[in-house]
């Protein structure tokens, strides 16, 4: 996948959509991330979903693993 310099990727919106599509509970995702050694809180997760904080590579990889999706899905172009 190629990202154009002018392309707007709404990572937080994509995270929300993937979680809703897979009918997962945020509290369960946060718990799994914590058990994996990532310092995730409800507040931090909220900020990630609403583009108020930058996601780390470690968080992104673990989130993709937990929701069982490819990392590229988080970067799909918004319509």
Describe the structure.
The structure is a single chain. This protein has 4 helices and no strands. It is mainly alpha-helical. The chain is globular. The two termini are 16 Å apart.
Descriptive key words:
globular, mainly alpha, 0% strand
Biggest sheet, open or closed, and with what strands and sense?
Answer: none
Count all strands and give the number. Answer: 0
Number of helices: 4
Q: Identify the overall geometry.
A: globular
Radius of gyration, in Å, reads 12 Å
SSE topology sketch:
Layout: H1 11-21, H2 26-35, H3 42-49, H4 57-67
What is this entry, summarized?
The chain contains four helices and no strands. The chain has 79 residues and is mostly helical.
């Amino acid at each position: 996948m190629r990202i154009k310099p002018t392309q707007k990727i709404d990572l937080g919106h994509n995270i929300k959509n993937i979680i809703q599509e897979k009918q997962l509970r945020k509290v369960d995702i946060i718990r799994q991330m914590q058990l994996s050694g990532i310092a995730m809180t409800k507040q931090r997760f909220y900020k990630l979903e609403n583009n108020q904080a930058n996601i780390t590579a470690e968080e992104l990889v673990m989130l993709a693993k937990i929701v069982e999706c490819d990392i590229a899905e988080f970067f799909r172009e918004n319509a």
